[in-house]
Design goal:
This protein has one domain (2-76). The chain is 49% helix and 19% strand. It has three helices and two strands; from the N terminus they run αββαα. The chain has a two-stranded antiparallel sheet with strand order 1-2. A hairpin with a 2-residue loop joins β1 (35-41) and β2 (44-51). The protein is extended and about 40 Å long.
């Protein structure tokens, strides 16, 4: 599965970015905040894309963190 699988994964990553980047950029432009695209995977979250805010503090998402740690307080009770 070596190089062929790597090429498939890279093509999927590029396609995801091409779709997500304009949407995330619009969120950043409208809010001034960093926008992330993530999917839930089991008890965790996998971040797929990020567009930083113009005033980014130097923080970055912790890739593959537990979803409860990134959820708003009202969702942490689940």
């Amino acid at each position: 599965m070596g190089p062929r699988l790597q090429r498939v994964g890279e093509a999927a990553r590029r396609a995801t970015w091409e779709w997500a980047e304009p949407v995330l950029r619009a969120v950043v432009d409208g809010t001034g905040e960093t926008a992330n695209m993530a999917v839930r995977e089991g008890d965790g979250v996998v971040y797929l894309a990020q567009v930083p805010s113009p005033t980014q503090c130097g923080c970055s998402p912790r890739w593959g963190v537990g979803w409860r740690s990134t959820a708003p307080p009202w969702e942490r009770r689940l």
